[in-house]
Write a structure and sequence with these properties.
The N terminus is likely disordered. Helix 1 packs across helix 7, helix 3 crosses helix 10 and helix 4 packs antiparallel against helix 11. This protein has a five-stranded mixed β-sheet with strand order 3-4-2-1-11. Strands 5-8-10-9 form a four-stranded antiparallel β-sheet, sandwiched between helices. It has a domain of 146 residues: 3-Layer(aba) Sandwich (NADH Oxidase). By secondary structure, it is α+β, with helices and mostly antiparallel strands. The longest helix is centred in the last third of the chain and has 21 residues. The chain has eleven helices and eleven strands.
Length: 373
């Protein structure tokens, strides 16, 4: 097993070798995978496609991008779920996947407003699938021209939004108010935040020590720029240290999955620092847990992230304690006691907020990969 010193020494050797070869492979960044984030200021003829190329940049669980789009007629589209993109271990009832459809729909609506179109949404036109989603439509969408419609002020923030997984710094006084959004509760209460830090660290530790849940994430790891460009979904690991340790055989899926490995231990230590940095928090509660409410929660969360991007504030969802598998049950109950929704209400989203260094956009499949005849 490699020690931290061996990792550093090995990294130095790889960097020297890379320099000598003139390749600097360890410094390469994924480029093809972030291409969908570019050129958004160059509109395409069909306003539906223009809206959807913005919508595919929406935050979604484990970056699975489960959205399938079928255009109908001249003004409509139907959304369905790619059932291979579900997360059966950590999201056994597909609640988070449906929230990811809500974020997609909200970004599509915002982008459509920039072209003078109002987006009419019919959630689950053929009925709400329970307890898992199926091939039935998640939503029917219709684009209606409205000359009086003004562009949503959050439109420009779509290309700037990021999920930032770094350690956060405190927000200046009064800065959190810029994120006020209907349906979102915000807090800087120090007592509550202290409890949230304990909860968040306990929840990510629980997930990593629950083999089926942790394996679900490991299987979706894209290690290094080459893998990310080839398969631009899932959980990306990139940067010089990752590239170098992958070349050394230190950072592998097997080592990341093995609780006895250095990679696992260092990874958990990094996550504990990250999940323990919560200068502020936001959460979303819905009146019930219907599929329509899950979509509504996703739409609210999308707007929260866009307001944050516009205000220069970092956002990272803390989804682990809200996941519904047996090993997480005690922490799930603790989250409900702490955030205290009313009886019958559902806690759909929890996120940390703060200041952080900027990060690159997440990998995305191009719009064409989501279109179906």
């Amino acid at each position: 097993m490699a020690s931290r010193r061996q990792i550093i020494v090995g990294l130095g050797g790889v960097l020297v070798a890379g320099a000598a070869a003139g390749t600097w492979r360890v410094l390469r960044q994924p480029e093809a995978a972030i291409a969908p984030w570019t050129g958004l200021d160059q509109p395409v003829a069909d306003p539906r496609l223009d809206a959807f190329r913005h919508a595919i940049l929406a935050p979604n669980p484990h970056n699975r991008q489960p959205w399938l789009i079928r255009l109908e007629g001249q003004d409509s589209a139907v959304l369905t779920c790619d059932l291979t993109k579900r997360l059966p271990q950590t999201d056994p009832f597909d609640r988070q996947i449906i929230i990811g459809f809500g974020t997609f729909i909200e970004l599509a609506s915002i982008a459509a407003s920039g072209r003078g179109y109002r987006l009419l949404v019919e959630p689950f036109p053929d009925g709400e699938p329970q307890p898992r989603i199926d091939e039935r439509p998640v939503a029917g969408l219709r684009f209606v021209a409205d000359p009086a419609l003004r562009p949503d002020p959050l439109l420009a923030a779509i290309a700037e939004r990021r999920t930032n997984r770094q350690v956060y710094r405190a927000l200046p006084s009064g800065r959190l108010a810029a994120l006020a959004e209907p349906g979102v509760t915000l807090s800087e209460n120090p007592v509550m935040l202290g409890q949230l830090r304990e909860l968040a660290v306990a929840a990510i530790t629980c997930e990593m020590h629950t083999p089926p849940a942790h394996k679900e994430s490991i299987d979706l790891m894209r290690i290094g720029a080459t893998e990310i460009d080839a398969q631009p979904d899932g959980l990306a690991l990139s940067g010089p240290m990752i590239e170098a340790t992958a070349l050394l055989g230190i950072t592998t899926r097997a080592s990341l999955a093995d609780p006895a490995s250095t990679a696992f231990r260092l990874g958990l230590e990094d996550l504990e620092r990250t999940y323990g940095s919560i200068p502020a928090a936001g959460w979303i509660v819905t009146p019930d847990n219907s599929r329509a409410s899950q979509i509504a929660a996703g739409r609210s969360y999308a707007r929260l992230t866009l307001r944050a991007a516009a205000a220069g504030i970092a956002v990272h969802p803390l989804s682990q304690s809200l996941q519904e598998y047996p090993e997480m049950a005690d922490l799930y109950a603790r989250a409900y006691r702490l955030l205290a929704p009313e009886p019958g209400q559902r806690l759909q989203m929890l996120a940390r907020l703060g200041l952080a260094d900027p990060v690159r956009p997440a990998a995305r499949y191009p719009l064409e990969a989501h279109l179906r005849a």
